[in-house]
Amino acid sequence: MLLRYLVTTASSGTPKDARVSQNHIHATLPVSAQTLAALREYDRSYYMYRIDLAPNVLFLIIFSLSLVGFLGVYIKTRRALSFTLAMCLGLICEVLGYAGRIMSWENQWDEDGFLVQIICLTIGPAFLAAGIYFCLQRIVCIFGPENSRLKPKQYPMIFIPCDGISLMLQAVGGALASIASHTGDDKAPGSNIMMTGLGFQVTTIAVFMALTADFALRTHRRVQEVGDGAALNQNPAVVKIRNSFKFRACLVALAVATLAILWRSTFRVVELSGGWTGELMAEQGLYYGMEGTMISVACLALNIFHPAVCFGEMMDGPAKDGKGGAISTAAVTHDTNPLMRAEPGDLEKNGDITIEMK
């Protein structure tokens, strides 16, 4: 019990077991030579601290439940396939990663658990970010594509490949670090590639946030200039979605998830910049706060306000009119332009909602 107390102090901010001095230990609690030897043994494991079991089990449960939640919503709604695939791939990585850390708790000198957790927990958030990128395309359609600098389809066309590059760099870096640990070679080249991938991910998310903010500002300014009728998509089904509490709450959830992933990725860049024996690598509590907690917040926010539920049928493209016809995503401006008006007989044509010039 004394050993367990001493070697788990990193998570509570007290001196780390991997670097604590013998004099400090004697000044804190009387320990035996065997205890000191055991403490020093962890310095030669794959971690710079004694892994705590409880937080890893907690995160394993959270991500497992989140994964079940995303699968359940898709099974029920059959919407947002691309979003669901991205989120599920990310969550599978998270589950495997924390399972790897539990393996390491049982044996910190076992390489398999270390490699599973370092690779899976590094690349997992890249998939989660991809899921968020798919949502912006739908948001642009709901508010009105003419308010965006880019066409709706261009958002995933730009950001998904960038996410793929980030993922590839992180995977290659992890593989090289794994090989280096096998051969006893320097891990720095692999770490640098992983750090480059994480840095590219941070840059991609930052650009994504900038374009999202630009779209929001352009939409707001256009509403101020010409009014809702001309600036926003006025199809009734789309207006209903846009004015709903669920949709607005989902926008907040997406913003929170994006910031959480950005925060986490930035931390991992800083952490890896110090190398495998840097100060941040020895901060177990900080790791759980910046890695596990941030990703938990991102996933749970989107579980609670799931885009497939909050965006309705707009999540898979143009919404339906209730008769099988597609609702156009173009803004309807009959409120402001007398030449554009919809008569009852004009609304249904071959199953599609259309607006004809009169």
UniProtKB/TrEMBL annotation:
<keyword id="KW-0812">Transmembrane</keyword>
<feature type="transmembrane region" description="Helical">
    <location>
        <begin position="157"/>
        <end position="181"/>
    </location>
</feature>
<feature type="transmembrane region" description="Helical">
    <location>
        <begin position="286"/>
        <end position="305"/>
    </location>
</feature>
<feature type="transmembrane region" description="Helical">
    <location>
        <begin position="53"/>
        <end position="74"/>
    </location>
</feature>
<feature type="transmembrane region" description="Helical">
    <location>
        <begin position="249"/>
        <end position="266"/>
    </location>
</feature>
<keyword id="KW-1133">Transmembrane helix</keyword>
<dbReference type="InterPro" id="IPR007568">
    <property type="entry name" value="RTA1"/>
</dbReference>
<feature type="transmembrane region" description="Helical">
    <location>
        <begin position="81"/>
        <end position="102"/>
    </location>
</feature>
<protein>
    <submittedName>
        <fullName>Uncharacterized protein</fullName>
    </submittedName>
</protein>
<feature type="transmembrane region" description="Helical">
    <location>
        <begin position="114"/>
        <end position="136"/>
    </location>
</feature>
<dbReference type="Pfam" id="PF04479">
    <property type="entry name" value="RTA1"/>
</dbReference>
<dbReference type="GO" id="GO:0005886">
    <property type="term" value="C:plasma membrane"/>
</dbReference>
<dbReference type="GO" id="GO:0000324">
    <property type="term" value="C:fungal-type vacuole"/>
</dbReference>
<feature type="transmembrane region" description="Helical">
    <location>
        <begin position="193"/>
        <end position="217"/>
    </location>
</feature>
<keyword id="KW-0472">Membrane</keyword>
